[in-house]
Amino acid sequence: MPRLSSRLVAGVAAAMVGGWLGVGQAAAQQNVVWWDYSGGGDGVRLKALLARFNEENAGRIAITNTTLEWGTPYSSKIQTSAAIGTASDIALYHLARSSTGVSTGVLTEITDTELASVGLSKDDFDPAQVAAASVDGKLYAIPFDLHPVVVYHNAERLCAAGLLGEDGRTAGMDGKEAFSAALQTLVDNGARCGVTTATADGGTLWRIYYSIFSQTGGSFFEDGKFLPGDNFQKAVDAAEVLRGLIDSGLMPAQTEYVTSIALFTSGAFAMHINGLWELPTMVDLQRKGHLFEFGAMLIPDVFGNGHAHWCDGTSFVIPANAGNPMTPEKRKAVLEVIAWFVRHSLDWADAGYILPCRQVADQVQHLEPQSFYGIFPELVAAAHFDPQTPLAGPAYPIYDAVGDFILPAVNGEMDTVAAFTALRDRLQALQDALK
Amino acid sequence: MTGATATQAARLLAAAARRRRLRVDPMGAALTALTLVAALAFFFPLYWALVTTVKPEVEVVRPGLRLWPETFTLEACAFVLTNSRILVWYLNSVVTSVAVTLLVILSSLLAGYALSQIAFPGRRLLYGMILASFIVPISALIVNHFLLVHRLGLLDSWAGIVLPQLIHPVVIIVYKQFFDAIPKEYREAAVVDGAGHFQLLFRIFLPMTTSVTAALAIITLISAWNNFLWPFLAQNSQEMMNVTVGITQVREAYGIRYARETASAVIAGLPMVMLNLVFQRQITRAIVLSGGIKA
Amino acid sequence: MTRRRDMAVAFILLLPFLAIYGVAFVYPTIDMVVLSLRKAPLIGAGEWAGLDNYVRLAGDRLFRIATRNTLWFVALTAPASTVLALLLAMGVARLRGWLQAAVLACFFLPFMLPVSVVYLIWHWILDTHFGIAQPIVAAVAGRSVSIFRTVSTFMPGVAFVTVWATVGFSVLLFLAGLRSIPQETSEAARLDGAGRIALFRHVTWPLIWPVTALVLTIQLISHLKVFDIVYLFNLRGRVDETMSLVQYVFRLAFQQNDGGYAATVAVAILVLVAVLSVLQFQLLRSRGQ
Description:
The complex is a heterotrimer of chains A (435), B (295) and C (289). Chain A is of the alpha/beta class and 435 residues long. Chain A has helices spanning 7-24, 40-56, 74-83, 98-103, 112-117, 127-133, 155-160, 176-188, 202-215, 231-247, 257-265, 279-287, 328-343, 345-349, 358-363, 370-374, 376-381, 397-410, 416-433; strands at residues 30-36, 61-67, 90-94, 134-135, 138-139, 142-154, 193-196, 221-222, 225-226, 269-275, 294-297, 309-317, 383-384. Chain A is built from 19 helices and 13 strands. In chain A, the strands form three sheets. In chain A, strands 1, 2, 3, 6, 7, 10, 11, 12 and 13 form a nine-stranded mixed beta sheet that branches. A two-stranded antiparallel sheet of chain A has the order 4-5. In chain A, strands 8-9 form a two-stranded antiparallel sheet. The two termini of chain A are 45 Å apart. In chain A, 54% of the residues are buried. Chain B folds into two domains: 3-78, no CATH class; 80-291, Orthogonal Bundle (MetI-like fold), CATH 1.10.3720.10. By secondary structure, chain C is mostly helical. Chain C has two domains: 2-35, no CATH class; 65-238, MetI-like (MetI-like fold), CATH 1.10.3720. Chain C has 13 helices and two strands. The longest helix of chain C has 34 residues, at 2-35. Classes of the chains: A alpha/beta (435), B mainly alpha (295), C mainly alpha (289). Chains in contact: A-B, A-C, B-C. At the B-C interface, α1, α2, α5, α7 and α11 of B face α1, α3, α4, α5 and α7 of C.
């Protein structure tokens, strides 16, 4: 039969048929339906892990996976499917979106007892992760990784400019003036520009911008309001920092994502702000002999309030399928699957993500390159997640608004105050329309 | 003047003109030169995409102009083929665009015949409505096409991609005009022999349409293959994407990927380029036919 | 008897077409008008809103910008593309044999490429830092310009790429038109001592005018509906300032879940395209006669 029916429906149907057959044979095997959004290199690693799981648990638990979509609202698809009881048994979920998932009733709570039943506890994860995965003290998602924004640096150029200490850590970059001065020193020592980042890419610019904004101590969204009170001025201040770097020629304007990486890896630029997910790119180039000595560090503390940066994570959730409750046996199997993946997250973390579990993190101390894992605790401690509103997330209105307002403001094409006024009004109108 | 002498005269005139043109025609020469330069300029982007594809990523971003790769590699192509679902997207593109083509050709052939050869009440009205439908932009219907396909439960399926692409009024009109131009004698002779409409259409008219059908089919296939907007809206999962959508929506999560991106463009564009080289005559004919120019 | 049989046959033959048109064209068109009168999400009930959406349309700044951008895009592409196509077609017509085939292929191949391929190629060629065309941009503008992230250069850039990608189609139409000019006419004029310009004005142009009208009309209508090339180039950029009308519909319906108002904007596009195409058709016809 030609595959004319929806892949989604096919997946669900296959699971239903599978479940029915399971009942007919022996009650032993549990069929678990799994949805994810991982493509590219991530997808390959995830598929390998899934295959390993199915092999190790043959006859007991069988996972059927479907890679659902890319970019466009993945979580809204889970939401619609859960409402009619056809969502998967397990789904990969953006950690930053879990509170939205809870408010729309899509996710089920995972209790301490359930965690303990598969040998996990909240203490296995960092408090920042647990907080992001919880609503009102109840846990709704189990973290799988964290991926924050960091600064990559060209160690040779930093050394030459006297900005790299004996211990391999950067020195003298905290504070707005000190950071600019450090970048200027790098330029004086032959770098074409101090730092590159994707200033022409709304999605990435949001992550960079939100990192700086988090350092002001401000709150982007609070009690249903965007940028209330003095948060507005903090938002403007944060944008002015980036704009100042561009105006003074320390950071190139209007740079596409890929270009910003290529400029850094060419060696002509001293630093590069991007997600930790680009680590494999750097490691790979270095392995082939195309890259200088490089390192990773936290984004400098610009406002003197301490380090902070944008962060998101991958997590596991168990969708609440309306009218189609999960049997206790199935739920037990689902929890076992999650625990297995958490324990094998080192293979997943090969992608350059930070590891989710302290117990796993301890294992990697001996792994190369040590320096990245050396800053692991600090990276986790300074993590700031997207604002908790349904408008946040990739392909959601906040990201659109970044392209329309923050991008021109940072690149000097629009007055910063006017840009943030327009941004606040747009988002507030959309937020109010949600009710 | 007989036909033969007319041809002869024309040939003489043409030869004379050609000599004149060779002697003094600075404007003509300038036009030719401009056209040749333009042809090179038009071709260069395609060439550059090809050259970028066969370079290693590090060479692609190295400063300086290199019109020929220093290191020749198929790494980028191999990466795209093994790390994306481009082959699945190809399959989706082939299945949906072939289905669109078959359905459009078949339904238009039948309707074109009925409009041309059968006198039924409301014929003029129907034809007028088909002509009028030209002014309704299909892309304005995206919201309601989405709702339609959603209500039919066909989102993320081949059928859902095919259905809204079946609106091609121009194919009906070309068929109708083609049948209109067939001399009445054919039909009358067939009717005398006692043939019905179906026999007339399939036995006598259909063989005559072969070249028109080929031309229309190719151009329908091209437009379905190259369609972006609707497949972009109707497909969500990577498994169901068409190649035109897939190469822009799914990018490897990280890295420097100029060569990979041009490689995916080259791989996605190749079938249409091949099709053009093989069927250039039919494509030209189809464009001229649908433009309504009597060549 | 025969008449009734004829009618039955006609009905059977028309059935597939009528079914397709009913389901995929007539129904969505009516559905669009109905939806435009409702305040409703993309999928879901919503409520009757009368003409509220149309009132909102009248005062909508983004709708005005999208309309302005779309018309600007059409103004940048349609005339330039038509003139260029005529010139190139006249040039191609002077060539013979393999050279003609090769040159024609150079102009036509871009038209055969999917829009996403066109986008990837030009996105790379015009890349701000590594694009091979940036030295040319720098020579004109004095510095490298991020063409698709600068509002003032966005539409001209997209229009340029569009002309590159679509002019081959018009060249073919013009070429067919030029070939249909009887050789005798032009040669006779030439022997009469008519100069090239006179020949073009008095012989070629009157005969090629209908084709020009056709080419312009096709361009106008297809470019008013522009979506994909604009969408791809302003993705993750300044969408507000650079979007086209169809992109605004897309954004309202699929990104902001505002189905009713999206349908209203779609109705406006329909009216705009219909009015402009009828107007232009009349204009060209009256001048052509």
